Each structure stands twice: as C-alpha cells, then as structure tokens.
C-alpha cells in the first residue's frame, strides 16, 4: 500500500528529469520576460509576523481586476519569481497579477503556510486598492500545491472573520492539478517534509472544509498526463463541490502536471480562456 500511495502522488515521476528541469527554468525565464516592462509594485510585505512578500504586476491608472496566483512546488520549492509568466498577457487584457511567496516546508508547517496564503488574500482584499487592484474583482488560482492553497482561500470557516473579511472568502478560482484531501500524504514520501498527522492533514484539506459560497464559480483543471492521485482528487473535488456552487471540471490535452501551468501565458489556450471567463464573472457579480 505505501508503494501504491507513493506512485499515485509522485507528480515528478510523470516526466523525465531533464524535462522537469527545463520546465522549472521556463517558469523563471518566462516570468522575468513577462514582467520586465510592466508597471507594478515589488517586495510588498503582506504579513508582518512572517515577513512574506508579494509582487503586483500590470496595474494602471484605474483599479484593475486581478489574478491572485499561488506557486506550486509540493509546498517546499519555487517562489513568486517563478509564477508571473502570465502577467504580460493579463496586462494586455486590463488584468493585474499578484504573485505571492510563502514559507516553505519543512521549515514552515503546512498549517502556517495556509495561514500565510490566507493572510496574503486578506491583504489584497483589504489594502489592494492602494496597489491599483479592484478589490472586489479578485480571482484566485494556482497549480499543484498552489491550487491547494488557493482552494484554502475559498472554503468557509472562522479564518475569514479572523482575517477581517467579515466571512467573505474568495468566490472565483482556477485550480490546476491540485491536491485537496491531504490525508493520503501522511503515508506518502512527501510527509518527510510535510510532517502531517491525520489531524493536521484534515485541518488543511479544502475537500473536508465547509465548501465555498453558493455564489462561487470554480474551474477544477488538470493535465491529461497526471499522477493517478492528482487526477482522482480533481474528480473528487469537482463531485464534492458541484452540488453547492458553479464548479466546472476540465482536462487539458497534451499537457503534463508541470507544463499545463504555462498555458496561462498562451492567449489561445483553454486555461487562458477559463481565467478570462472567471474575471468576467467577477464583473457580473459586482454589478448584480
């Protein structure tokens, strides 16, 4: 059973080491190119206790709708500098990009990582207007671990009151290749750096939390080539949330767990179209 669990949740095993390295380099290089000529705000401290930072790209003279994007890396790698490759395309469409950092495992526990990402979302909603953000039109999203963390800003619970949001969680989300019930990771190799117990895994599992509000719209996306655990959890989250809110399932052909995220920089991709539709849905919501 442990070997089966390890295989089901080993995303990196679905690509060769060379391909994995090239895609990680592409994240960084494409992000640098995308932001080179964009107006924005960098190194903004969003959470004083941890000192964690965010960048805002593609703002203008009026407050812009915004994509709040969270990087993956199995909660232990990568950064906001790897996660802005979509910023130039979004800026052309009048959309800002917020890319955030968070403390990495094992030095930072997963409950604390979740707290930090929620603090970043609250910061954007409460103080984003000063950074050129339309704080009522924020779509959250991310890939892999980033999808899990973005989902944690959408689910209900005491946190949204404690953060000063009057209980208002994120209502639009693009969740790509994520894990949403972390209990299987207790028996997977990833627990070497996550140090989860059954209790803490349950605590940070969006699939086990109160679902997003009925007004929410979510796209649960995955690549055609995913490890079995990632595919199954995307299906399970879609099934779990669909009765309560607008939740669409999406499989991106000819993509793997890692390169699918880069589709957000391609104006012709289905992921890019899905993000545009989510941004548009925030406009409808604010006008209603």
Could you characterize what this model shows?
- The protein is an alpha/beta fold and 288 residues long.
- It has one domain: 3-Layer(aba) Sandwich (Rossmann fold).
- The protein contains ten helices and eight strands.
- The protein has helices spanning 2-8, 17-35, 87-92, 110-127, 145-152, 159-162, 191-194, 198-203, 228-241, 270-287, and strands spanning 40-47, 52-57, 64-70, 96-100, 133-143, 172-176, 217-225, 246-256.
- Strands 1-2-4-3-5-6-7-8 form an eight-stranded mixed sheet, with helices on both faces.
- Strand 7 (217-225), helix 9 and strand 8 (246-256) form a beta-alpha-beta unit.
- It starts with a helix and ends with a helix.
Summarize the model shown.
The chain is of the alpha/beta class. It has helices at about 1-10, 15-35, 85-90, 110-125, 145-150, 160, 190-195, 200-205, 230-240, 270-285, and strands spanning about 40-45, 50-55, 65-70, 95-100, 135-145, 170-175, 215-225, 245-255. The protein starts with a helix and ends with a helix.
Q: What gyration radius follows from the Cα positions, in whole Å? A: 17 Å
CATH class: Alpha Beta
Report the count of strand segments. 8
Return the CATH topology: Rossmann fold
Content of β-strand:
15-25%
Note the gap between the termini: 51 Å
Low-confidence stretches: none
- Biggest pleated-sheet summary: 8 strands, mixed
Structural class: alpha/beta
Count of discrete domains: 1
Count of helical stretches: 10
Quickly give the CATH architecture.
3-Layer(aba) Sandwich
CATH superfamily: Alpha/Beta hydrolase fold, catalytic domain
Reading side by side through the largest sheet, how are the strands ordered? 1-2-4-3-5-6-7-8
């Amino acid at each position: 059973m442990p070997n089966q669990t390890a295989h089901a949740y080993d995303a990196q095993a679905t690509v060769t080491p060379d391909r994995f390295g090239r895609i990680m380099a592409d994240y960084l290089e494409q992000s640098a190119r995308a932001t080179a000529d964009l107006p924005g705000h960098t190194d903004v401290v969003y959470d004083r206790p941890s000192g964690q930072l965010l960048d805002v790209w593609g703002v203008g003279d009026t407050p812009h709708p915004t994509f709040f994007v969270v990087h993956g890396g199995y909660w232990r790698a990568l950064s906001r500098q790897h996660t802005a490759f979509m910023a130039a395309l979004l800026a052309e469409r009048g959309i800002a990009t917020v890319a955030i950092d968070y403390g990495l495992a094992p030095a930072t526990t997963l409950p604390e990582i979740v707290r930090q990402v929620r603090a970043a979302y609250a910061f954007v909603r409460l103080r984003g207007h000063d950074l050129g953000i339309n704080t009522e039109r924020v779509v959250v999203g991310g890939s892999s671990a980033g999808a899990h963390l973005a989902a944690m800003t959408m689910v209900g619970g005491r946190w949204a009151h404690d953060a000063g949001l009057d209980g208002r969680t994120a209502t639009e989300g693009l969740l790509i290749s994520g894990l949403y019930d972390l209990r299987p990771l207790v028996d997977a190799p990833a627990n070497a750096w996550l140090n989860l117990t059954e209790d803490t895994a349950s605590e940070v599992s969006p699939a086990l939390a109160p679902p997003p509000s009925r007004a929410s719209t979510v796209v649960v996306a995955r690549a055609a080539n995913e490890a079995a655990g990632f595919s199954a959890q995307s299906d399970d989250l879609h099934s779990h949330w669909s009765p309560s809110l607008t939740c669409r399932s999406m499989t991106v052909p000819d993509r793997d767990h890692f390169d699918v995220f880069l589709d957000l920089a391609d104006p012709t991709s289905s992921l890019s179209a899905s993000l545009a539709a989510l941004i548009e849905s925030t406009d409808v919501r604010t006008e209603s």
